[in-house]
Write a structure and sequence with these properties.
Elements: E1 5-10, E2 15-20, H1 23-34, E3 41-45, H2 52-60, E4 64-68, H3 75-84, H4 95-127, H5 133-151
Parallel strand pairs: 3-4
Antiparallel strand pairs: 1-2
């Protein structure tokens, strides 16, 4: 699974497929999966959050669906891995945890932006230039704190 594509491999027929990661591609994937035997377990690699939509759909269909370690593995390796380690993989977290993870990523990005802004402020001070970004830094810090408090 990736931002643009859903790549699949189904043993024992060694059937490969590739669909666009779009509503139409999701429909085509679901058609294939509905024809599979009971007890099917679907595994996929991490794709930066692009997998959340189809993951929810697969779970709602009652399919045992897990996310596997992001070890640069291809679809055949995922299939073999799941055959030998059926207990492996991460199940879909509940909605609140999904939101928390998304906010955590967003927060990390904002903290990094704040570090860069602080470095710019420090450099301006050393050069004797007005540090107007200090107001922006205070606003950014207040925004981060409000986002965190909403989680509590």
């Amino acid at each position: 699974m990736s931002r643009d594509w859903l790549d699949g491999f189904c043993p024992p027929e060694k059937q490969r497929f590739r669909f666009q990661n779009s509503p139409d591609g999701h429909t085509r994937l679901l058609e294939i999966l509905q024809g599979m035997p009971d007890g099917l377990k679907v595994g996929f690699e991490v794709s930066g959050g692009q997998e959340w939509v189809i993951w929810r759909v697969l779970i709602s269909m009652g399919l045992n669906t897990v996310q596997l370690p992001p070890a640069q593995i291809n679809v055949e390796l995922i299939t073999c891995f799941m055959a030998f380690r059926p207990e492996a993989g991460r199940t879909l977290p509940d909605a609140k945890l999904q939101i928390l993870w998304a906010l955590t990523v967003h927060r990390a990005q904002m903290v990094e932006a704040r570090k860069r802004l602080s470095a710019q402020i420090s450099a301006r001070r050393k050069q004797g230039v007005s540090a107007e970004p200090e107001d922006m830094d205070s606003s950014l810090k207040a925004f981060l704190e409000s986002q965190i408090s909403e989680l509590e």
